[in-house]
Amino acid sequence: MLENSFNQLVEEIRNQLKPEEQFTLTLNCEQSQFTRFNHAKVRQTGTVNDGSIQLVLIRNQRSSYREFPFTGNLEFDRQIASDAIALLREEVPQLPENPYLVLPSGNNTSRESYSGKLIEADKVVSTLLAIVSDLDFAGIYAAGSVIRAYADSVGQQHWFETDSYSLDYSLFTTDGQAVKGTLAGSDWDALGYQSRIEESRAQLALMSNTPKPIQRGQYRTYLAPAAIAELMTMLSWGGISEASHQQGGSCFSAMRRGEKKLSPKFTLQENFKSGLVPRFNELGEVAPLELPLIESGELINMLTSSATAKEYGLEANGATQGEELRSPEILPGELAHDSILKTLDTGLYLSNLHYLNWSDRPTGRITGMTRYACFWVENGEIVAPIENLRFDDSLYQFWGENLVALTNFQEFIPEVGTYEHRNLGGVHVPGMIVEDFTYTL
After folding, report:
1. What does the pLDDT look like over 280-291, one tens digit per residue?
2. Can you list the alpha helix ranges (DSSP code H) found in 108-239?
């Protein structure tokens, strides 16, 4: 078993340590199936069995790291780890001291293992393509077991293993317009997949109409959960970070100073109860099951790593070194799905956004483009698709005084990235209607 192999490697490294040395060890591992589709046909398929180790060696307030493959073969892994330690012992003394280096401490241990019900590998193609064979369907399906693990020189040790899948797809019209959808979880949801495809089909039919040009200005707007998920990614780019606040760059510094609030309808928290991502970080620290960040429009916490806490004399709350969101959730409101268009009345319906960036982070201004299945709505009826628009607005507006309503349902929008390894987790978010959302082009 990989877990036994990892545990044995940890003991080997502990036995090699000198008294003045410390280490941390993190493991990323997966056994995944990937199938890529184009024009409702299989274009590429295969499996990946991969593992990588990051070993950090710490001595005299200095540290450096090496990354190397993890094979599960103890003899091979022991040798490559020994070589890495030898190189690090030469390198670390040449580095400058880091006054804010945090040493591993504590006695945290955990073991979480979640088994899922995934599509059998030989049935993936027939399961996915049966209901889209008449469509220009493109996308990628990824599924399998993902492992994250940690150990260190003071005895902390964590193991997290989960079965999961994600499907990231697009449907295209004959002139290249597209509708995008995602589906993810641990247990394959056939009815959920069918429902999502039917919804995408309906939007695709509307995309065939002549696009309506929209003049720049401010419009009442519905942002679907996938669009909200894109906005949420910005908060991990120096938004909800305590270090960013201390350095003068956080969008929430005005809230910390008591100068601004968000809408009382808006509540944001980290919620690890779903078990989709591990709670431990790269120092083996364990985050709370729930951590309120913004509660009814009031800033409660920012994500604070141990390094930031040490530098500024604060208390850490289990955040990673990058102080990014890992399992965020915006709590739902009261707007029913069937009432979205009626409540919107006249304005824009945005299914998705892309190319987001801060236009002015300290004031919370975000810019980006509309993408996929975005429509003009009049009197509660979708009239036509729209041409791409650029927006530029402040979260103090769309999550603040201009927030009209949040939906009474949430959607799970998964992380579908596969750079270096398959990503875990995602966001749980509702949709929302806002007044006077600002479009600049």
Report:
1. 999 999 999 999
2. 124-129, 190-207, 225-234
